[in-house]
């Protein structure tokens, strides 16, 4: 049985300038995310920070981890991980952010001074009506 | 079938071609990385819940993290990802000496990352900004600031362990490269180490803004 070696292997060698270019892009995006964090965007800071982080993450996955050049199946596996992570986060947040809405005694106390409510008054917010942010 | 004919030494007997062997390794590695995403995922969920419940406390507590040291560590880790990618590229081109130089560079940068982390941690230990019941620091406004530091220590701690494990694997790769095991035909272990190392970088890319840069 003859075994194919060498050039038969499906692979991609990125030029040096691709790696250096991606490296500089990542450093530039880091500088941007630090600068933006000191500007008050009224609660949108976390969104902007996550968008920039996701751009950086995509550059790392596509170019450093070679997903752009490799078989699509590896990208599917990776995306599956991200998909299940977002389900994990989204469904949990539906619960934890909205507990107060369903718990009628918590959402609209009949008699606010009643002792049973005193243990529920945690500072900040437990119902999540006010996402706050700075 | 004749197994002894034309089979390179690196090809395990249960694979028929080097391509099949390399692709099997890569698929296994990506499935492992998927489990890593979910491992850290649980901590990201904990972060999301507690931050949404205590937005003001998170904002006040995060001011006690050192943005300069965090930024320097981000630059260090991104640079180490570049040197790792270049180490693999050198081996793809069959250049052993540059591969060794880039692997040593990656190892050095990983060490710098952990040393900076050590200074950050020891400063917080000193101030009593410790997780859970060990938290003794007074000065963060808001409800239960120890929650922020618990999340900070568990997330960066688990990430730090990954950096440490990565340093172990990179050292192993340096040894294998020195023993002349890799060539432009066969460098799969180097490639897998690279995938792992880039994932460690990827996780830090999210940890840094979420912990140090709460706006």
Description of the molecule:
The complex is a heterodimer of chains A (134) and B (215). Chain A folds into two domains: 14-69; 71-123. Chain A is mainly alpha-helical. In chain A, helix 1 (16-37) runs antiparallel to helix 2 (45-64). Chain A is elongated, with a radius of gyration of 24 Å. Chain A is built from five helices and no strands. Chain A has helices at 16-37, 45-64, 72-102, 104-107, 115-118. By secondary structure, chain B is mainly alpha-helical. Chain B has a single domain, classed as Four Helix Bundle (Hemerythrin (Met), subunit A), CATH 1.20.120.80. Helices cover 74% and strands 0% of the residues of chain B. Chain B is built from six helices and no strands. Chain B has helices at residues 18-53, 55-62, 67-92, 96-127, 146-178, 188-212. In chain B, helix 3 (67-92) runs antiparallel to helix 6 (188-212). The longest helix of chain B is centred in the N-terminal third of the chain and has 36 residues, at 18-53. The model of chain B has no long low-confidence stretch (mean pLDDT 94). Chains A and B meet through helix 1, helix 2 and helix 3 of A and helix 1, helix 2, helix 3 and helix 6 of B.
What is the number of helical segments of chain B per DSSP (H or I, 4+ residues)?
6
> How much helix, percentage-wise, in residues of chain A?
55-70%
Q: Report the C-alpha radius of gyration of chain A, rounded.
A: 24 Å
Which consecutive residue ranges of chain B, at least 5 long each, have pLDDT under 50? Answer: none
CATH topology assignment of chain B: Four Helix Bundle (Hemerythrin (Met), subunit A)
Text of the CATH class of chain B: Mainly Alpha
Provide the structure class of chain A: mainly alpha
User: How many H/I helices of chain A?
Assistant: 5
Structural category of chain B is mainly alpha
- Helix-strand topology string of chain B: HHHHHH
Write down the Rg of chain B: 21 Å
Which descriptor suits the 3D outline of chain B? elongated
* Total E-strand runs of chain A: 0
CATH H-tier superfamily of chain B = Cytochrome c oxidase, subunit III, four-helix bundle
Task: Estimate nothing, just give the exact number of structural domains of chain B.
Answer: 1
Under the CATH scheme, which architecture of chain B would be assigned? Up-down Bundle
Give helix % range of chain B: over 70%
Which stretches of chain A are poorly predicted, pLDDT < 50 over at least 5 residues? 1-9, 123-134
What amount of the residues of chain A lies in strands? under 5%
């Amino acid at each position: 049985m003859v075994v194919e070696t060498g050039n038969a292997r499906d692979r991609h060698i990125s030029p040096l300038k691709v790696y250096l270019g991606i490296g500089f892009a990542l450093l530039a995006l880091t500088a941007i995310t630090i600068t933006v964090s000191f500007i008050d965007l009224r609660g949108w800071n976390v969104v902007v920070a996550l968008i920039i982080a996701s751009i950086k993450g995509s550059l790392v996955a596509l170019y450093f981890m070679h997903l752009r050049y490799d078989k699509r199946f590896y990208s599917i596996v990776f995306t599956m991980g991200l998909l299940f992570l977002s389900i994990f986060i989204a469904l949990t947040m539906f619960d934890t952010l909205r507990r107060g809405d369903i718990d009628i005694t918590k959402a609209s106390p009949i008699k606010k001074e009643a002792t049973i409510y005193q243990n529920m008054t945690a500072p900040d917010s437990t119902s999540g009506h006010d996402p706050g942010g700075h | 079938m004749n197994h002894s004919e034309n089979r390179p030494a690196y090809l395990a007997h249960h694979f028929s071609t080097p391509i099949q062997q390399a692709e099997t390794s890569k698929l296994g590695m990506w499935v492992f990385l998927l489990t890593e995403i979910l491992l850290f995922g649980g901590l990201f969920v904990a972060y999301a819940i507690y931050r949404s419940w205590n937005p003001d406390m998170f904002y006040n507590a995060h001011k006690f993290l050192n943005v300069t040291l965090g930024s320097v560590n981000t630059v260090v880790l991104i640079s180490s990802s570049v040197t790792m990618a270049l180490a693999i590229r050198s081996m793809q081109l069959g250049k052993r000496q540059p591969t060794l130089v880039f692997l040593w560079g990656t190892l050095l940068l990983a060490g710098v990352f952990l040393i900076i982390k050590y200074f950050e941690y020891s400063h917080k230990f000193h101030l009593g900004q410790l997780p859970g019941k060990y938290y003794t620091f007074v000065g963060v406004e808001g409800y239960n600031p120890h929650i922020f530091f618990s999340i900070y220590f568990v997330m960066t701690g688990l990430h730090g362990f990954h950096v440490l494990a990565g340093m172990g694997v990179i050292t192993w790769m340096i040894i294998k490269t020195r023993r002349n095991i890799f060539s432009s035909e066969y460098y799969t272990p180097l490639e897998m180490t690279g995938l792992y190392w880039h994932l460690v970088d990827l996780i830090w890319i999210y940890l840094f803004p979420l912990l140090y840069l709460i706006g």
